[in-house]
Design brief:
Elements (H helix, E strand, L loop, with lengths): L1 H13 L9 H11 L15 E2 H13 L3 H15 L10 E2 L14 H18 L2 H18 E4 L2 E4 L7 E2 L2 E4 L6 H10 L5 H14 L12 E3 L5 E3 L6 E2 L5 H8 L5 H16 L8 E2 L12 H11 L14 H17 L2 H6 L1
Antiparallel strand pairs: 1-2, 3-4, 5-6, 6-7, 7-8, 9-10
Helix pairs in contact: 1-10, 2-12, 3-4, 3-5, 3-12, 5-6, 5-7, 7-8, 9-11, 9-12, 10-11, 11-12
Length: 344
């Protein structure tokens, strides 16, 4: 039985690539579990809070599934409850257990990018000028408040407050949402998004650590250009960094210079019939004693070998795992076979 289980795991991770798709049923099931009637996306594994990131994910998924009513509902709640008054950005966290529920008013740049990208996609799909205008306003605020030149690199600060320390900055590499930035550059060729993307991709190549040469969840870029995992957080490829290969694959950056190291690690695990772990310690090579959730495993399948018939996430999958799984489906549908592209 153990040998059979190993064969099944390896087969799931290394099966012949196929083009997945997010169907309306998969999105409808996820929406029924995670989205309230008013459009709030709920993270029930984290005290029932909501995040700007989650609202952006859900808007992208609604657009991809052709669910215009759902998109409008989620966007309306986001605009009403998370929009900042001082900048055209969004508060990163809504906690119904606190008064007020948006006591922490800092933004999260990935949430802002996701929301702006979702609005741009929706404007193109449904021809709504208000969506295009809102996306443009948010993109402008991101450029003005969050794009910074540090040590010769153009970087995205993770938020307006708290990430700049005496010339050094703390960055989240997974906030480089490659397909979104490419869409922004197409929409605004002279706005500098190409430089944000070019320098961001170079940063991902340079900021690799440990024997697997992986990106960290959080990164410190010194004023002198030195790179290191952020000193006040675990030096791991984990909860945040798992999104980096998703966004690279979705954005068509499938070559060995970008995806090679993580693909090699995942293919090695598959050959040994081991599912991807919850995290990898960048210094010791140690791994979590539990596997990554289904959404993360689907990203590994997307990047390292595909999957012939991925099942949609179910009741056992929380907010984050569900979102990653569905986003991986959209990425595969929009980019075709990631593995095949990398081999061409």
């Amino acid at each position: 039985m153990r040998a059979l289980a190993g064969i099944l795991v390896a087969g799931l991770l290394l099966a012949a690539p196929s083009c997945w798709a997010l169907d309306r049923a998969a999105w409808a099931q996820a929406k029924a579990r995670l989205v309230e009637a008013d459009g709030r996306v709920v993270d029930r594994d984290n005290g029932g809070v909501s995040h700007s990131e989650g609202q952006g994910y859900a808007m992208i998924l609604a657009e991809a599934a052709g669910d215009r009513a759902g998109f409008e509902q989620i966007w309306a709640w986001t605009e009403q409850h998370l929009a900042r008054r001082d900048l055209r950005l969004f508060v990163w966290k809504f906690d119904p257990g606190t008064t007020p529920p948006v006591a922490q008013t800092n933004n999260a740049t990935d949430g802002d990018i996701l929301i702006a990208w979702a609005l741009l996609r929706a404007a193109e799909r449904w021809g709504v000028p208000d969506y295009a205008a809102a996306s443009s306003e948010i993109r402008s605020a991101i450029r003005l408040a969050l794009v910074r030149r540090v040590a010769g690199r153009t970087v995205l600060l993770p938020g307006v407050e708290g990430f700049d320390h005496d010339g050094a900055v703390i960055l989240n590499p997974s906030y480089l949402i490659v397909p979104a930035l490419k869409a922004f550059a197409r929409a605004e060729p002279a706005a500098g998004w190409d430089m944000v993307l070019e320098d961001g991709l170079a940063l991902l190549r340079d900021a690799r650590f440990g024997r697997h040469a992986l990106n960290p969840d959080w990164l410190r870029l010194g004023a002198d250009g030195a790179l290191a995992p952020a000193p006040d957080r675990p030096a791991r490829f984990g909860y945040d960094a798992i999104r980096i290969p998703l966004y690279l694959a979705w954005g068509g950056e499938t070559g060995a210079d970008q995806l090679g190291p993580v693909r090699a690690m995942w293919q090695d695990l598959a050959a040994r019939a081991v599912l991807p772990p919850g995290w990898v310690d960048l210094w010791t090579g140690g791994v979590a004693d539990y596997p990554a959730p289904q959404g993360a495993v689907m990203i590994a399948r997307l990047v390292a070998g595909g999957m012939p018939a991925p099942a949609p996430p179910g009741e056992a999958d929380g907010y984050y795992s569900t979102m990653l799984a569905l986003l991986a489906m959209v990425a595969a549908d929009e980019q075709g076979s990631v593995v095949q592209k990398a081999q061409e």
